[in-house]
Amino acid sequence: MSVLVFANNSDGKFKKTAFEIVSFGKQVAKQAETTLVVVAINANDVSSLSTYGADKILQIKDSKLDSFNAKAYADCIQQAANKESADIVVVDSTNDGLYLAPILAVKLEAGYASNVVDYPSSLQPLTVKRKAFSSKGFSFTEIHTKNKLLGLTKNSVGLTENPVDSVVEDFTPSLKDDDFKISSASIEKTTGTVTIADAEIVVSGGRGLKGPENWGMIEELAEVLGAATACSKPVSDLGWRPHSEHVGQTGKPVTSNLYIAIGISGAIQHLAGVNSSKVKVVINNDAEAPFFKAADYGIVGDAFEVVPELIAKLKEFKSTL
Amino acid sequence: MKILVCISHVPDTTSKINFSEDNTKFDSNGVQFVINPYDEFALTRAMWFKEKQGASITVATVGSSNVEPTLRKALAIGADDAIRIDTEPTDGFLVAQQLSQVIKAEGFDLVLAGKESIDYNGGMVPGMMAELLGFNFVNACIGLEIENNKATVTREIDGGKEVLVCDLPLIAAGQKGMVEEKDLRIPNMRGIMMARKKPLKVIAPADTTETTSTAKFEKPLAKGACKLVDANNIDELIDLLHNEAKVI
Ligand SMILES: Cc1cc2nc3c(=O)[nH]c(=O)nc-3n(C[C@H](O)[C@H](O)[C@H](O)COP(=O)(O)OP(=O)(O)OC[C@H]3O[C@@H](n4cnc5c(N)ncnc54)[C@H](O)[C@@H]3O)c2cc1C
Ligand SMILES: Nc1ncnc2c1ncn2[C@@H]1O[C@H](COP(=O)(O)O)[C@@H](O)[C@H]1O
């Protein structure tokens, strides 16, 4: 019996999501009075995982796994879980995590609970709280199978330091041709900007900004804050911004610490996707806009006046830190 | 090409979500049900293949008779026939098992689905079916072309996109990008008339295992009042975000 988590990396480097999943795994392992095993695939340096409680680290190194392949990665994790007799396996909710999890669930013959937002409320039967109805509600799911798979929502439990002396072991799973029936032809990544998935802060603009030519101040505000940029659905439908920025019930979910909504009315579908953000600020010239009911802080005012002022003041503030 | 589009029957996005029976059941009172928005992209892409490359489209839903209007709507959009597997979709794995049986029996080359249902947001059914059937699988699909049984599939990755190539049979779970929002099909009068005569087959569920169950539901905590800051006092907002909320 043990708990096993998959710590994914990006170009060999772990991001905060990986440390969060290790923190989560360690807590669950403590609850279950067992140890935590972490699987890493082609990572440069696994030592940082020790800080968050990785009792044992299985390192897989194989150039065939350089680019992410959901089926092959799921195969690696399943073989690792099997070797370690892990009965609770945890993966993240990045695009890669969401892709491999259902494949892994079938391989492990595990009941799978996605969108987990908290530590298990019980171990017998394993019960977890999950986001449901696009954050309009939560469900408590019980898993009845021997093996269990959890998908952890980003930024739900945060990081907990738990320094341990990790045992690091090389592990060579036996990969099959069948794992590589899908091949990657090309990858296109925007560099230099923060993604909505990684961002601690998200700055989002709506139809109230009138047109794409007015996004300069949104980008500048995001830059000052080190934030990602996002938008409401009509803004991406109108082609003012790329689809990848569309957030809400039918777009990307936002689980950042801070979400700043500018010229966004706060329709139920928009709020559904951004409600899980911890703190919400709204800037809107209509005091009756529904977003004010969902926000923590608000300014009733014209975005074209408030945002440049906010940028200037934030620059001042940042320079005093 | 034989295409199956998996249709999930979900509450309309404007629905207020409530729970009944001591928070153990979803309260469908007054709730309008629709085709899962992600599945509409899949169905519209299927229509494109049907019209441009020649394909038949079957739609399938796991659910009791109350899902039939949703299937009829998919037929009105242009699917050729529909299958309803007559059991409650209580768990993602159960749904995947039921649909897999049908896919195996009917021999589909291409299965299109949504990346998640907007009710339970599981994101499970398509990937599980693929693994059960040994089909190729691409999640978060934002582009799909098929030429001579070879698929070129674009998927969204964090901060960009990746182009993948593979053979059929394939299961692709899609979202906006598979087709554009403006190209989404809605049923017209003629489609609705024709849909009434199209075959809707009800089949008995296969034996399956349920791996998870829902013990109870909870609504998000009611929000405290929004603190309003004067537009001429931006310093106060920065102070609140720094010292009170501690997010900057
Ligand atoms: C099936 C379905 C799914 C949907 N999914 C999503 C989704 O995932 N995400 C999403 O965002 N929407 C979604 N929607 C759309 C949603 O219903 C709203 O139409 C949309 O969110 C409105 O976008 P908006 O707030 O940018 O625009 P509007 O509603 O037009 O609001 C603009 C706001 O800007 C304010 N404003 C105007 N001028 C200024 C100014 N100078 N300064 C400050 N404020 C100003 C106005 O007061 C107004 O509140 C969905 C709809 C449907 C039917
Ligand atoms: N009951 C169901 N019947 C048919 N297809 C379904 C059902 N539930 C889910 N699906 C399909 O699987 C996709 C992902 O759903 P889910 O795994 O429930 O988030 C949906 O977008 C549908 O295409």
Question: Which key features would you list for this structure?
Answer:
heterodimer; A: 321 residues; alpha/beta; seven-stranded parallel β-sheet; 28% strand; B: 248 residues; nine-stranded mixed β-sheet; two-stranded antiparallel ribbon; binds adenosine monophosphate
Topology:
The complex is a heterodimer of chains A (321) and B (248).
Chain A: E1 2-6, E2 9-10, E3 13-14, H1 16-31, E4 36-41, E5 56-60, H2 70-83, E6 86-92, H3 95-108, E7 111-116, E8 122-123, E9 126-132, E10 137-143, E11 148-152, E12 167-170, E13 183-189, E14 201-205, H4 216-225, E15 228-231, H5 233-237, E16 258-262, H6 268-274, E17 279-284, H7 291-294, E18 297-300, H8 303-320
Parallel strand pairs in A: 1-4, 1-6, 4-5, 5-12, 6-11, 7-11, 14-15, 14-16, 16-17, 17-18
Antiparallel strand pairs in A: 2-3, 8-9, 9-10
Helix pairs in contact in A: 2-3, 4-8
Chain B: E1 2-6, E2 9-11, E3 19-20, E4 25-26, E5 33-35, H1 37-53, E6 56-62, H2 68-77, E7 81-85, H3 92-106, E8 110-114, H4 125-133, E9 136-147, E10 150-157, E11 160-167, E12 170-174, H5 189-197, E13 200-203, E14 212-218, E15 227-229, H6 234-244
Parallel strand pairs in B: 1-6, 1-8, 6-7, 7-13, 8-12, 9-12
Antiparallel strand pairs in B: 2-5, 3-4, 9-10, 10-11
